[in-house]
Amino acid sequence: MTTTDRPSGPSAVEAKLHVPADDSRWEAFAGRYRALLDAPLDAAGVPDWLTDWNAVSSAVTDVAARLSTHADLHTDRPDVQERYQTFVAQVLPQVERAEQALKEKLLGVPDFMPAPDFALNFRRMRDAAALYREANVTLGVTHEAQKNRYSVATGNQTVSLNGETLTIPQAKQRLDSPDRAAREAAWRALSDSNMGVADELDGVMLDLIATRWQLARNADLPTFRDYQWRALDRVDYTPADCAAFHEAVRDEVVPLAARIVRGIADGLGLDRVRPWDYNRNNLLDPQGRESLKPFRTGQELETLAEAAFESLDADLAARFRQMRGGLLDLESRPGKMTHAYCQYFPTRNEPFVLMNVVGTAEDVRVLFHEVGHAFHGFYSGDAQPLAWNRWSPIEFVEIPSMAMEFLTLDHLGHVFTPEELGRYREKQLQGVVAFLPWAAQMDAFQHWLYAEAPENVTIADLDARWLELDRTFHPFVNWDGLDERVRAKGWQYYHVFQVPFYYIEYAMCYLAAVGVWRGAQTDPAGALARYRASLQLGSTVSVPDLYRAAGVEFRFDREHIRGLMAFIETQLPG
């Protein structure tokens, strides 16, 4: 049964996301916070006090997550949008103030020494408390409202193609066609749709830049990069390390990507690679075959995924079956945010996956990716009673998802024929190579925007810088004679608006995921055991220690990248 033909009445998904009106008001939490603030506290009483704090903090996070996800599923419903924005504006600022007061109370307890599994988060609380500014509480409401304008604009975006009205994911599927004319038509229709909202998104971005500069100034920091570096708790690497990564990708990965793309173009008899010939998420088939379409509906995708998890590991399969009870919303439809993500409801230790599937093999990969995140939530939630200790720092958090893309490769015999599975595996490896230049470009753009560009940067400046970077990291795509404004707006991307500076982590974790897979080729049981053990650690150990637990190194330097690219080349056919 698809999302669109469920029986009338509240669906399982809607039931999971339902928040009673009284539960979304500040009054639902105020008394519990006040009790924590008023309670006498000494070092011996901290563990029980933390348990009570964890309960109310988790309850707030749970409500926020459900309201946010519901808003993303209904971008075309003003009542749903208003309810979420009201919570953001009226409840979250009060919560932020209360959480700061509790941090200060904890930090002031004489002679308190955190247990080893809480030491890192105690340090993070100390650093977060130092970054806190009352002025940024109010400004944070503005920031969230500005980000939501992006979600609404893109969530309601449609594409007109050959007399059809399509969602963005449905239109992007046409870019996989072996028919070059069909690809070009889809690309031009998508470009027209994107340009139709470009001016609106330009305005949102200028507002966000102004707000982000003010957040940094309020915190007495010179740039928003400095502010976000602290907010994201980046303590294991520096901006200089990121710049070295950009250069390494330019020199070690871009040439390999160019060779792969040129080989595909030669196979198809293309004299040049145009934008409609290059989809980094799903490179064209060099023999001109149709893209793999292993399912038709979200329900079919769920069924084939469950069988893959059954083959891989019984407990993983059981977790996925639990998700099929209202914790998956996979179908693409109008009025639904076009991105894919995994949300988390801490009070019930339940992850939730939102996607926009259209029947492609790429959807299969993305589902395994997002469900890998879900496994991270499940396992860290089982092992770590305190919500602060669940999940992991963002430098690790994509390893559970990206490694799952690889660990499932040998468990898809029920989905693909051997020949099709070979194609799927090749796409997976090509996808790593194609992704790294994009990740470096995205990260380099944000370093420039938030640390090098002036505060009064213009949209023309943003467009020009993106063009410069795109020519550096994607020189193999030919734009001659095309409207460069379309290319220049490539920065109008989800993460730039919604989660600034969260992107290089995908590259770090993709490199690590390749390492996990390389280990699984000789010791599959051991690789899976290390994978699960690292997820259970949650946020209780450092990033390098998490990587070691997964059986890999925390590295993204030139030598490491060069070695992994050489390994990938040995795994590609030909």
Itemize the secondary structure elements and their pairings:
Layout (H helix, E strand, L loop, with lengths): L11 H6 L9 H12 L7 H28 L4 H13 L1 H16 L11 H13 L2 H22 L2 E4 L2 E4 H6 L6 H39 L5 H8 L7 H30 L29 H15 L1 H10 L4 E4 L9 E5 L4 E8 L3 H23 L15 H9 L10 H35 L6 H15 L10 H5 L5 H5 L5 H19 L1 H13 L6 H7 L8 H14 L3
Parallel strand pairs: 3-5
Antiparallel strand pairs: 1-2, 4-5
Explain this structure to me?
This protein has a domain at 3-113. It contains 23 helices and five strands. It is mainly alpha-helical. Mean pLDDT is 95; it is low at 1-9. The chain has helices at residues 12-17, 27-38, 46-73, 78-90, 92-107, 119-131, 134-155, 168-173, 180-218, 224-231, 239-268, 298-312, 314-323, 361-383, 399-407, 418-452, 459-473, 484-488, 494-498, 504-522, 524-536, 543-549, 558-571, and strands spanning 158-161, 164-167, 328-331, 341-345, 350-357. The strands form two sheets. Strands 3-5-4 form a three-stranded mixed sheet, with helices on both faces. It is globular, with a radius of gyration of 24 Å. Helix content is 63%, strand content 4%. Strand 4 and strand 5 form a beta hairpin. Residues 176-562 form the Peptidase M3A/M3B catalytic domain. It comes from Deinococcus caeni. Pfam families: Peptidase_M3 (PF01432). This is Peptidase M3A/M3B catalytic domain-containing protein.
Order of helices and strands: HHHHHHHEEHHHHHHEEEHHHHHHHHHH
Per DSSP E runs of 2 or more residues, the count of β-strands stands at: 5
Tell me the strand percentage band: under 5%
State the secondary-structure class.
mainly alpha
Unreliable stretches covering 5 or more consecutive residues: 1-9
Strand order of the largest sheet: 3-5-4
End-to-end span in angstroms? 42 Å
